[in-house]
Amino acid sequence: MADSKAGDAVPELRVTPDKYLPYRYAGASGDFNPIHLDAEFAKSVGLPSNILHGLYSMGLVAKAAAQGLAGGDPRALKKLTVQFRGMGLPEQEIVVSGSVKEVEGDRVTVDLEAKQGDTRIIRNAQAELEL
Amino acid sequence: MAIKTDAVGKSWPSTTYQVGREKIKEYATVLGIENPVHFDVGAAREAGFRDVVAPPMFAVVYAMPSLAPAMFDPEVGINFAQLVHGGQTFEWDEPACSGDVITTTATCTSIEEKLGNGFYVFETTSVNGDGAEVVRGTWTNIVRGV
Q1: Looking at this predicted complex, what is its ipTM?
Q2: What is the mean pLDDT of residues B4-20?
Q3: Distance between CA A27 and CA B104 in Å, rounded?
Q4: Mean pLDDT, rounded, for B44-64
Q5: Does B1 have pLDDT greater than 80?
Q6: Which residue of B has its CA nearest to A60?
Q7: Three-class SS state of A110
């Protein structure tokens, strides 16, 4: 029942992760890499500060695709591929946007990206959903 | 210095993870996912799931532990101080529900040097207790300046 068509926009998802989000995400995911939790450590390895987990940002991309096109049905998302580039930072708004690339029967392919200001923290994201 | 590629093709012992309702709730809450199928067993069963169902990206919770021995294997030789997550793909099949015991196996599929950086690619395959594939992950790690 895919009623999407190529070129349709995915409803934008806007989230501002608070200062403590990386700690909650670390607890939920089990990823306690100190580059996400410890600003001093992050700076010592050449990062601007502690950075968001890339897989958290990818989680927001997955949420935007599933919510925007499938009413949040966890069965709909069949494939998601992303590239992590610019560093995501806490306390800055993340905007996930995208558009439908093609529709084949029930299968919908969507291009997405996640930005903070002008920095693309996730680029070349592509989702495949079965609707 | 040439990058070591000896670990290409190597697999590590599988890890198992039992999915639970409270962990799904915790993950969904952090991501701000509100669908009741992730919180309430009644809503999940009404929607056709065995039990509370995990959001797709919950795959990181049960699949990632399988990568720990690979990442720390001296034969792979990753320099953690310069490690960044470059890219990620998941392909989902059977949904993961509370009560499932999911077994994940990691394999190194490629190690390459590109423009002075090391690209280490691992594939994980996760199956549930019925032997059905739940998710396949492709994890690309970049080590800056190998």
Answers
A1: 0.96
A2: 97
A3: 20
A4: 98
A5: no
A6: B31
A7: strand
Determine the pLDDT at residue B146.
82
Q: What is the least distance, in Å, from the CA of A55 to any CA of chain B?
A: 8
Q: Under an 8 A CB cutoff, do B35 and A74 touch?
A: yes
Comparing CB atoms, the residue among A31, A60, A78 nearest residue B91 is: A78
Nearest to B57 among A27, A59, A67 (CB): A59
Confidence check: pLDDT of B73 > 60: yes
Tens-digit pLDDT profile for residues A15-57: 999 999 999 999 999 999 999 999 999 999 889 999 999 999 9
Rounded Cα–Cα distance for residues B58 and B64 (Å): 10
Instruction: Output the domain CATH number for residue B128.
Output: 3.10.129.10
Q: Which residues of A touch B46 (CB under 8 A)?
A: none
Instruction: Give the containing element (helix H, strand E) for A82.
Output: strand A77-84
Put simply, the answer to whether B32 touches A63 (Cβ < 8 Å) is yes
Check whether A108 has a pLDDT greater than 50.
yes
- Is residue B81 predicted with pLDDT exceeding 90? no
Both structure tokens of B3 = 């990058």
Q: What percent of chain A has pLDDT over 90?
A: 93
Query: Which chain B residues are within 8 Å of A30, Cβ to Cβ?
Result: 61, 64-65
In CATH terms, A9-130 corresponds, of 3.60.15.10, 3.40.50.300, 3.10.129.10, 3.40.50.1980, to 3.10.129.10
Q: Is B86 on the interface with A (CB under 8 A)?
A: yes
* CB within 8 Å: A81 and B89: yes
Asked if A61 and A67 touch (Cβ cutoff 8 Å), the reply is no
Whether residue B43 lies inside any domain: the answer is no
> How close B7 comes to chain A (CA, Å)?
23
